[in-house]
Amino acid sequence: MARKTSRAKTFVELAAEPTWSETPASRTGKYASRPGGVNPAGEFFDPDGVKLELQVEDASTDQAQQAVDAGAAVVIERCGCGGGLRSCTPRWLSQKDVEALRGGPPPTFTGRYDAPTWLEVWAGSGRAVVFAHGDVSWGDALD
Hints:
The chain is α+β, with helices and mostly antiparallel strands. It contains three helices and eight strands, in the order αββαββαββββ.
């Protein structure tokens, strides 16, 4: 009796298969969505669970202010860990606090606690986010 051999998939068949990011595995374990925070894989999510993409890794204070003036949200983490440690939960400023920052002076790096300090600009689903890490002072909202 002749045995059937399995044939290799065609390019069209391979292209029609879901990519890894489209499978359930991409949303579990270290890749699970962490609304408002950073998952163990280093992915950052807004409070609604939308995955954000890094736009500016080491933003200047002027770039951060311009983003906020243009409508960006603001999130902070004071320890300078990047927001990914299990004990660190980034804090999202209220709309009222962000509105108070618009049109004002840009943030400053204080060096108050000697924490690693930097600014990033992220975006996802048409929304920009300024992520302030470490010793950042910004108006009355971050003092």
